[in-house]
Predict the structure.
Amino acid sequence: MRQKGLVVTSVCFLALALVFWNKAPRFVHAAAPPQAGIVRTGSKQPASTGREAASPAAPRVLQPGQTLHQVTRGESLPALARVYLPQTSFLTVGELEAAIRQANNGLHGNFLHPGEQIIIPGMLAGPILERPVEVNRDFEVRAVYLTGAMASSEKGMRIIKRWREMGGNSVVFDIKDSDGIVNIPFQHPLNSPARRPVIRNLPKFARYLHSLGMHSIARIAIFRDERLVVSHPELAVRSRRTGEPWKENGKLVWTDPSHPEVQAFDIALAKAAAEAGVDEVQFDYVRFPAEGDQKDAKFLFQTKYPDWRRSDVITHFLADAYAQIHPLNVLLSLDVFGVMAWQRPVDLAHTGQDIPAMALHCDVLSPMIYPSHFFGMDGYAHPGDAPEHFIGESMARFRRDTKTTGVVLRPWLQAFGWRTRTYSANYIITQVRVAKEEGGIGFLFWNARNDYGKPLMAMSEMRTEHGRYFRGDQLPGAAAAKTAAVSTPMPVLVPTAAQPQ
């Protein structure tokens, strides 16, 4: 009896399973997954294998500038946006992701199904070929600084647009900071990127800045390069005691400024930026290490050119760099220590920054004259609270030291509250006013966190007094570009069509 009951039960379960199998969706056999990759308009779709669906899906109709992507296992919408971003007219992953959702009937969620076809909008017709917008060296730059990661983010785009609206006309952004990470695609034997560059299409970014009427400045930290010296210790400053790479206060961060391979690497990166369409290349850390055990530091030039000083190395490097960069129709600017205005022998011996000599091999000198950094200078216990004195004194000294060179002085000004009790919009205004009165043309605001609340407040006031704080120079064609930018709801070059070259 028990055996008969088991038979009846088994038959019932079998019949029930058959009913569910007939009603369940049919899946492509796992042994034959759909082909992956880009499927452009007019290309043949891969034939499916295994069990066929009752009726094939209607083909997707693509508009100009759109591409069809066939999803593979494990792909998500954010990952898809990251992959396609450099090939589209969009500037950030978030913008492209939103556009993909819109192009695919309001696609919800982030997870995609293998075999699903996704429309990718805004595809560029080909590589963007952007050219620098040429300006004279005395073009009045009014800029803020952005890290590479910030410049390529949605928040960075908002800062750029807000700065433009308030009277700014330029942006300084990192393509290599002192950590040595290169923020743009750059093919070079010494560049071994550990991650995807944050600015993945520099010509597109330069074109966007130009569309806003913005002068683009690519900053490169030159000889302080942690990534390069860690991955290639043979390029480091050497320790006389041990023969090992020399460390500045325990940190391995300095390449040997006199090493030809280091110099050639940085010049090649500068040329790559210029050829991508930026308007100016800015060298920072164009000096020798100034801290640490200086007597223990050994440099290549001391053997090869025993009669040279550190300043000779810097000057010869700049002469070579300027000769290669200047013909590319971009400006070359140099960041220098503010204290070098005093040209004290100890500072010159350590840094190698001979200001009159350096001024002969660049277009612009940008002294970093942050009041809070003048420790123990001129008898001030709190130099950060004396912006008028230190901006005025340092600019007057730099003007005197460079008066026969023709170089333009465009200072870095303090846009942060470190070691000052008086940081405010008025603090910003005082710096800009005094720098201009002492011969400065334009200005650059530095804030490592890219927080420009006080400078924006100051700009709203300074722009109302035409000529007092700045002339108001604009990039050629900037008026039309600014009008177009204001009418564009998103910072996108061409949202759904191929980008003309």
